[in-house]
Amino acid sequence: MPELPEVQTILDALTPHILHQPIRAVALVWRGVVDRPEPTLFSAWLTGRQVVHTARRGKYMLFRLDNDRWLILHLRMTGKMRVVDAHEPWRPHDRLIFHLAHGRDWRFEDQRKFGRAYLVEDPAEIVGALGPEPLSAAFHPDYLAQVLARRTAAIKSLLLDQRIVAGIGNIYADEALFRARIHPLQPGGTLTPTEITALTQAIKTILTQALAEMGTTLRDYRRPDGSVGAFQNRLQVFRRTGQPCPSCGTPIQRIVVGGRSTHFCPQEQRLKPIEH
DNA sequence: AAGAGACCCTGGATGC
DNA sequence: TGCATCCAGGGTCTCT
Q1: Residues A118 and A36 sit within 8 Å (Cβ to Cβ)
Q2: pLDDT at A133 over 60
Q3: Does nucleic acid strand B have an atom less than 7 angstroms from the CB of A32?
Q4: Which of A37, A260, A266, A268 is catalytic?
Q5: Do A41 and A93 fall within a single domain?
Q6: What is the share, in percent, of chain A residues with pLDDT greater than 70?
Q7: Catalytic (active site) residue A234
Q8: Is position A67 within any domain?
Q9: Which of A56, A57, A59, A222 is catalytic?
């Protein structure tokens, strides 16, 4: 569910509540949430530790502990974070709870059980294969041109490949492709240098705007205090099937690309014939 | 190597 | 009302 802007917003809100608070105990409500190490070790290694630094990489949240190990969390589709008073009743989908020293709980809630927690010595074990951060200087047109060269898959699918660029999900892929006026099924290797430059800039612009709006709330995404984002009011094509394109009025079309719902304007995002 | 599809889960919305 | 089907913002695994 959450993509880069949502993960960053959640982490920013969460950090002041959990930083330098010793974890008095861990409640592993559903053991499957832990990917590694085995759940018993996971709890044992976290107990008594405290988070001394937080960071985001792609859609992962990284928490450096005072013993130089790293707790890493991924919210996947329906994961949420909350910090609440310890005596608040648990919710049905609470999966992992950290009892903090100041008497509050840091809770990870996840209806669909896709979210995962990792505890590792080297974060590269989890995030090492990710592509560059889209808002960093490393993500520039020359880089994108290089990784798209000779690729035949649909550009939409390639934007969702976290090894190419980290943090883009279904919403912002569709929105960026619309802003750059590129058809989602265009094979990655057939984009012109002009299109690649436009796409690079569109991704940076969309993500920057979404960050300023604190993310997009369609249903599940909430900030740790329960409030919603505002970027859903700025969406041009995502989940607007049949509604007029904001630019030309043509009905927005929905297709499935790589198994994911994909929304675009068939008038302004034309599929180009393959050049030889 | 790269690409397509199944799969992991739960629950809300929609259709009959 | 009940039941079936489709859909969901992500990532991994298998097969080709």
Answers
A1: yes
A2: yes
A3: yes
A4: A260
A5: yes
A6: 99
A7: no
A8: yes
A9: A59
Q: Smallest CA–C1' separation from A221: which nucleotide?
A: C9
Give CA angle at A82 (A60, A18), nearest 5°. Answer: 75
User: Residue A184 CA to B14 C1' — how many Å?
Assistant: 27
Annotated catalytic residue A240: no
User: pLDDT tens across A226-248, in order?
Assistant: 888 999 999 999 999 999 999 99
Assign residue A236 the CATH number of its domain: 1.10.8.50
What is the DSSP track for A211-250? Answer: HHTT---SSS---TTS---SGGGG-SSTT-TTSBPTTT-P
Residue A260 is among the residues annotated as catalytic for this protein: yes
* Nucleotide at minimal C1' distance from the A174 CA: C9
A1 pLDDT higher than 70: no
User: Domain residues for A48?
Assistant: 4-127
Q: What is the pLDDT of residues A143-183, one digit of tens each?
A: 999 999 999 999 999 999 999 999 999 999 999 999 999 99
